[in-house]
Design brief:
- The complex is a heterodimer.
- The longest helix of chain A has 24 residues.
- The two termini of chain A are about 25 Å apart.
- Chain A has a seven-stranded antiparallel β-sheet.
- Chain A has a domain of about 120 residues: 2-Layer Sandwich (Alpha-D-Glucose-1,6-Bisphosphate, Chain A, domain 4), CATH 3.30.530.
- Chain A is built from four helices and seven strands.
- In chain A, about 25% of the residues lie in helices and about 35% in strands.
- Chain B is mainly beta.
- Chain B is built from one helix and 30 strands.
- The radius of gyration of chain B is 18 Å and the shape is globular.
- The N terminus of chain B is likely disordered.
- Classes of the chains: A alpha+beta, B mainly beta.
Chain lengths: ~180, ~325
């Protein structure tokens, strides 16, 4: 998915320079994506796979996780993607008992992910022998001024995050239920 | 039919949960109700704060975000940044009355405490638009700093304060002459701004420096700083305490309003945003953008005492309790 985005960004050309100057401004409206999946495994088993902020190997698009600070609030990690893109993230909230954590992207190029000011919350909820993983994202589109170009619109940003969550959660389910 | 609905329908103020015989004309139109803008879902929710239950929801296109109330609290003014509009809503009948296209990116909004006048911050044009609430037309503009976001008016109706996010400063504007008197440097990227009941101090939530700046309005000087959680959004005041929504931290930071010393960080919800105390300071209400609820906090015990489901992505940026 990320690869497709990168290709799309390449086709659409370079992001306008003006964007960098407006990097602090909001787009008009923050977007929200919530995806969840039921997994036929106890919550503790699922948490063991996704609960370490320093190991994002359960996300297929990620090739390498490097970071520091463990699972303490303020911990950081750098994700190197399969396609070479780099995403820097910071842990804002961590609740081992409640099996949830929250983090933000501190640095990413819109060519890697067409979003800005992204923050996210992921949780595992037990339901008997099964569990549900919920992944929530809050972000702005890639273009921070009014009237965005089509490749940096709300729709593109929403699709990118929705596709990422959907494909990653499906892969997680397969990985855990498959016993690997 | 619940009590607040009865009050709305009859136009009466019941002094307590008491006798109908004591009911009189409702001067303030107070309903103990929250009006919550839900940006991604293009809706506005009405929440009965006694029952902590949503009692109505209307469609309001254009991604509604900011909100202010008329002096008698019978009318809500909502900004829609995507629609580039100001939306006027009758809070009693819950109907959209009029719309005014402003252009730009209207977000922050405040109403004059006595006059029919509303101020709207234009994020991109770096100005505050003055709207005559009687005719719902633009009556003027006031130049401020870069990307004005939160707005607040002093209780005496004399000054308008604008949190100019990308200037890292607050503009102090004389409403009578519509001129900027001063720009006060604060923390990094101030977003929400709240003025205390006495009109003496203003508190800005600084998104990038994770703190609150305290301004003494009379001297136009910064008199303090309070550390907040990750990415603070807005500030409410109740029971001599300040309450800060920490968007990324998912917490509400509580501090002493006089000494500015920290008291507690309350685990609140996913992306807490708009926050306001009710008129008597008995409760503080928080719009939880990530959880789609309005949360109630007891400002004395600092416990979360209730929540009500609302539309997706509640924001309630401004004054939303009537």
């Amino acid at each position: 998915m990320l690869k497709r985005l990168l290709i799309a960004a390449t086709i659409f050309g370079v992001v306008p320079l003006a964007l960098t100057g407006a990097a602090w401004a909001h787009g008009p409206s923050r977007q929200k994506v919530v995806q969840s999946i039921e997994i036929n495994a106890p919550a503790a088993k699922v948490w063991a796979v996704i609960g370490n902020f320093q190991d994002a190997s359960w996300i297929p698009a990620v090739a390498k996780t490097e970071g520091k600070g463990g699972n303490d609030v303020g911990a950081t990690r750098t994700l190197t993607l399969q396609n070479g893109g780099v995403i820097e993230e910071q842990l804002n909230k961590y609740d081992a008992e409640g099996m949830s954590y929250g983090y933000e992207i501190t640095k990413v190029d819109v060519k890697v992910l067409p979003i800005n000011d992204y923050s996210s919350h992921i949780s595992v909820t037990a339901d008997g022998d099964k569990s549900t993983v919920e992944w929530k994202g809050a972000f702005y589109r890639g273009y921070m001024l009014n009237d965005p170009p089509p490749e940096l619109s709300d729709e593109v940003a929403n699709k990118a995050i929705t596709d990422l969550y959907t494909s990653t959660l499906a892969a997680l389910k397969k990985k855990i239920e498959g016993g690997s | 039919m619940n009590a607040s609905l009865v009050r709305r329908k009859l136009g009466l103020c019941l002094p307590a949960l008491g006798l109908l015989a004591l009911a009189g004309p409702c001067w303030s139109a107070a309903a103990h109700e929250a009006i919550v803008t839900s940006q991604p879902s293009d809706s506005v929710s009405f929440v009965d704060l006694t029952a902590m239950k949503e009692t109505g929801r209307i469609h309001a296109s254009g991604k509604p975000a900011g909100i202010a109330l008329s002096p008698d609290k019978s009318t809500a003014y909502v900004t829609a940044p995507d629609g580039k509009e100001l939306i006027e809503i009758d809070a009693v009948s819950r109907a959209i009355k009029r719309r005014l296209v402003l252009g730009g990116a209207p977000l922050g909004i405040a109403a004059h405490p006595t006059r029919p006048e509303v101020y709207v911050a234009d994020w991109y044009a770096h100005k505050v638009i003055v709207v005559d609430a009687g005719t719902l037309t633009v009556s003027g503009e006031i130049a401020v700093g870069q990307s004005p976001s939160g707005l607040a008016v002093t209780p005496d109706g004399r000054l308008l304060l604008s949190a100019d996010r990308d200037s890292d400063a607050v503009s102090i504007v004389d409403i009578g002459t519509r001129t900027r008197l001063a720009s006060v440097d604060v923390g990094n990227r101030p977003f929400g701004i709240t003025i205390d009941a006495a009109g003496e101090r203003a508190f800005t939530a600084n998104v990038k420096s994770d703190d609150v700046t305290v301004i003494e309005i009379a001297t136009k000087k910064v008199v303090g700083r309070v550390a907040a959680g990750r990415r603070p959004y807005a500030v409410a005041l109740a029971q001599g305490r300040g309450f800060v929504t920490d968007q990324y931290g998912g917490t509400v930071t509580v501090f002493d309003q006089s000494t500015l010393q920290p008291i507690k960080r309350i685990e609140a919800c996913d992306h807490p945003e708009g926050i306001e105390a009710d008129a008597d300071g008995a409760n503080v209400y928080v719009a939880c953008w990530g959880d789609d609820v309005l949360l109630r906090i007891d400002p004395r015990s600092l416990a979360v005492t209730g929540k009500a489901a609302v539309g997706t992505g509640p924001r309630a940026f401004g004054k939303f309790i009537r």
